[in-house]
Amino acid sequence: MSTEPELHRNDSSPSRNPEDRRKRRRPEDYVEAISQHSTRAKEHFLHPGTHYRPLAQFLKGSLHKSLRIRTVSQPRPHIFAALHNLDCSFDDPNRVRFFDSKEGLDDFASYPLPRKNCGQLLFLRGYPSPKWVQLIGAKYRVDAEFFRRHLSIGQISEPFDISVLPSASQNIVKLSITSLGKQNVTLSKQGEGVDSLKDFHESLGDDPNVVGDSIVRRYSVHDKTRFSIEQDVTMCVLKTGESWIAIILLDCGRDLDEGPAGPWIESSSRPHMHGFDNVFNPVLLFEPNICLKSFEKKEGTSSSNGTQLLQKRCFQQSCSLLHTKSYGRFLSPAVMNTDAFYALSDVFNFAACAESQFLGLLKSKFMSETHLHNKEEHMKECLLDLKDHKLLLHEHIQGIQAVISIINDRGGSRWPRAGSASDAARMVSMTPSARRSSKESMLQVVVERPAITEQEMLPARSGAEAEAEAMAQRLLKDYEALRSDAQALSDLYSEGMRDIRDNAMLAESRKAIEQARGVGHLTLLAYFFLPLSFTSTLFGMNFKELGDDVSIWAC
């Protein structure tokens, strides 16, 4: 009798000993658990773990990385982790704690878990080190699949081992943020940028002393002066007893001029970077009465906000500020503390605004180049450009549709939601200042909310539920509008491609007509030339001399 089921049960069954559970929370035990699962081959296990081998090697530091030239020799100090305590008010100095990429590891290890009935947001910025992943994974018992998917670049994964099934992504939410850049693009072909990006991926993590390099998933050239990069935000929500924590992995970490070389910066221009203006356009966020509110809620100085503004940073991106104290400034603290999706709504809103600007760039580019579709010398170039951008749009439409599904599910079925816990328990768990801020915020919700019908009152919702639902509906409308705009733009690109093909066929028809006319002229010339040529040839032949009294007809 085979012993495989018994071995599998012994390996996977959780221990009931509390001491074993505490040991399993150690970083080394977290790595060992992943490493053991990665050794399970398909020949012996129904659930093989061979696709976790690269992650296990990464956590052990055994992935082979060749040290390459970096854009700067001494990177700036970097805030890698930012922890938001949602039970504190925005003015409370304990609301946000920042942890440096080097010295902050030990401080983070000793930082307590969220209090009862309280939530936390943990932002991790850039490419992590194995030690940070080990510590966070062990402390919060994070599913290894969460890290594996986010690190699915370079040597960490194969392109076919990321499942697209919704059931495989119940607590893994991924958003894409597009940043628009302006610079003199010297790459002659898009393929050169792809090769350079591949080298960039292979260089990530090559220096163990540098943590938090920005990750770029896609680099696209739109014309000679404009390009875009795509970066991911991967999120999950974990419950720790009666509290919860949301982990947000941001691709945006250090400025791109501090990390490995990439196609967005040429080797010849690196020494002169301080002479450039800002390379990336800002992401413009909309908030009603923002000009008035910004005076009432000052966002603090650079040091208190977790940023470094000591010198001009040409490659700074707007998403590099998502982790700061400014996050959630216009949200209700009480609802953030009880509803995980609402607490993460600013991330969804930021991604939507970035996507809107990206679609606006593509639309303006299409409109400004429409006149080139009729010029024969530009047809081939325009057709290839439209084809590439249509494929890019198709992937963006798929991403937008995925986000719409996430919003409809409110992130996940197990995410904490407003109304699941009593308001009294929530208010008791919050600090006094946060409690006052919560009452003012909820009062504002009640005052600003229009009259509701009886249908809307069934079932009756608390103020927190109403606020969370209103935010979800707002995001849903925004993303549905983005999907509609992207689809309309894709149709424009398809129409443009058809116009170019029609114009090309018309040009070929004109050429054929001109060639036919030329052939007609040649035929007319041949009509007269051939008999004349035959006659001249005939009389030019050598004949035997005839007598004077014999005619040629007699011959």
TrEMBL record:
Ranges in a coiled coil: 465-492
Protein keywords: Coiled coil, Membrane, Transmembrane, Transmembrane helix
Protein name, per record: Uncharacterized protein
Pfam family, any one: CorA
Compartment(s) of residence: Membrane
Lineage: Eukaryota, Fungi, Dikarya, Ascomycota, Pezizomycotina
Gene Ontology, cellular component aspect: membrane
Positions of region (Disordered): 1-28
Keyword Nucleotide-binding part of the UniProt annotation: no
Keyword Iron: no
InterPro entries: CorA_TM1_TM2, MgTranspt_CorA/ZnTranspt_ZntB
Membrane topology listed for this record: Multi-pass membrane protein
SUPFAM superfamilies: Magnesium transport protein CorA, transmembrane region
